[in-house]
């Protein structure tokens, strides 16, 4: 039975120190925003790939070409969990943005 690969951000421990900030990256790093953008883009690409795989397996199960139905069930569960995680992260980001916008200067 294949194992579900861990989510990159969860699989690696995140540490915070005053000198480096969250994740160990220096706060003065000029490409920090680009690295975050790349990470978000990669996560969305992985989500799309997961959903595409689940859709393909669903199609194979419906047409009778899929011999191992458990493979589809695992892929569908993985896609559902990945989507729920993405939506939860998006909601937290929107909440944080709204909170920042409410701050007085």
**Percentage of β-strand residues:** under 5%
Q: What's the overall average pLDDT, rounded? A: 81
What's the oligomerization state? single chain
- Trace the largest sheet across and list its strands: 1-2
* First-to-last CA distance: 55 Å
Task: Describe what this molecule looks like in 3D.
The protein has a domain at 31-102. It is built from three helices and two strands, in the order αββαα. The chain has helices at 8-11, 32-63, 69-102, and strands at residues 16-17, 21-22. It has a two-stranded antiparallel ribbon with strand order 1-2.
Quick tags:
two-stranded antiparallel sheet; 3 helices; 105 residues; mainly alpha; elongated
Give a brief description.
This protein is mostly helical.
What secondary-structure arrangement, pairings included, does this model have?
Elements: H1 8-11, E1 16-17, E2 21-22, H2 32-63, H3 69-102
Antiparallel strand pairs: 1-2
Helix pairs in contact: 2-3
């Amino acid at each position: 039975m294949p194992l579900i690969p861990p989510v990159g951000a969860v699989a690696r421990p995140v540490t915070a120190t005053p000198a480096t900030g969250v994740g160990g990256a220096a706060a003065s790093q000029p490409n920090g925003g680009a690295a975050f953008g790349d990470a978000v883009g990669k996560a969305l690409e992985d989500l799309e790939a997961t959903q595409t795989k689940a859709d393909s397996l669903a199609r194979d199960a419906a047409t009778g070409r899929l011999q191992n139905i458990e493979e589809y069930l695992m892929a569908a569960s993985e896609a559902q969990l990945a989507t729920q995680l993405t939506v939860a992260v998006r909601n937290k980001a929107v909440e944080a943005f709204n909170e920042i916008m409410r701050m007085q200067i």
